[in-house]
Design goal:
CATH superfamily of the largest domain: Phosphoenolpyruvate-binding domains
Distance between the termini: 65 Å
Radius of gyration: 23 Å
Number of helices: 13
Number of strands: 8
Number of domains: 2
């Protein structure tokens, strides 16, 4: 079980600059790994930002780990923007990326550009992420052409879960791997500043990462990507419905939170909480005045 490193956040903050898309590119060029996690609320974002995370993704994974949906498909623009605003309030330095939800960019290029703009204008994000390969070329070009940075996402794309037949690894055959490689090149050429590779073989992810000029962020894609991302609720052990095999749990918050709540229920039922130390006192003289007034 890992612990939070002993970092002086005050000194860290004094020496940090705002992370930008160029910052990630420079990290790739210098061979420095990129760290990215998901966040959906103010306090989580604030903790991550203080500890020096490079990028925070407000992922549509919130549909499953926060809102309780079966998958990411029901998530709406309004739900995404609501959580983006909260995350933005807690972050000062990290590159903030808003995940474009299902059907917010597939209907038309014009609608995709409008919705991408809302992430920056209303959600205070720095960039957007969308799923898909070569079929998203024109959409990505239009969004980038509007001055909005785009992160691509290929491999296992959760919004296509029904089309893929489930949350299955991708690129395991030569033909499928070749298509993913070609998609990566196409997305780079379309203007993406970075690319998420999800649930693909490590050697393929490494091959793609070496061939691309833009950084790759892996999730279930091995150690050869330029950076790594996980869903925070997974690494904290706070989402028990299922855990992807590529997740490393750094904590077991589900048990910790459960024990705390059970303790509260028990103490309330046994009248052990609250005690005097958790209660507000009133001066005797004021109490006497009150009683005199009431009983006149």
């Amino acid at each position: 079980m890992s612990t939070i490193p002993n970092i002086s956040t005050d000194s860290l903050i004094r020496t940090r600059n705002k992370i930008t898309t160029r910052s990630l590119l420079l990290k790739k060029q210098r061979g420095e790994p990129i760290s990215m996690l998901t966040a959906y609320d103010y306090p989580t974002s604030m903790i991550m930002d203080k500890l020096g995370i490079d990028s925070i993704l407000v992922g549509d994974s919130l549909g499953m780990v926060v809102l309780g949906y079966e998958n990411t498909l029901p998530v709406t623009m309004e739900e995404m923007l609501h959580h983006c605003k909260a995350v933005a309030r807690g972050s000062q330095f990290a590159l903030l990326i808003g995940d474009m939800p299902f059907m917010s960019y597939q209907v038309s290029v014009q609608e995709a550009v409008r919705n991408a703009g809302r992430f920056l204008q209303e959600g205070s994000m720095d960039a957007v992420k969308l799923e898909g390969g070569r079929e998203r070329t024109e959409t990505i070009k239009a969004i980038v052409g509007s001055g909005i940075p785009v992160m691509g996402h290929i491999g296992l794309t959760p919004q296509s879960v029904h089309q893929l037949g489930g949350f299955l690894a991708q690129g395991k055959t030569a033909s499928a791997a070749k298509r993913l490689y070609e998609d990566a090149i196409v997305l780079q050429d379309a203007g993406c500043f970075s690319l998420v590779l999800e649930s693909v073989p490590e050697r393929l992810a490494g091959f793609i990462s070496k061939r691309l000029e833009i950084p790759t962020i892996g999730i279930g894609a091995g150690a050869s990507c330029d950076g790594q991302v996980l869903v925070t609720h997974d690494l904290l052990g706070y989402f028990d419905r299922f855990t992807p095999r590529f997740v490393k749990k750094y904590a077991d918050l589900s048990t910790i939170v459960g024990e705390a709540i059970a303790g509260f229920i028990s103490e309330v039922n046994n009248r052990e909480f609250p005690t005097t130390e958790h209660s507000i006192d009133m001066p005797d003289e004021e109490w006497d005045i009150l009683i005199d007034e009431i009983e006149k």
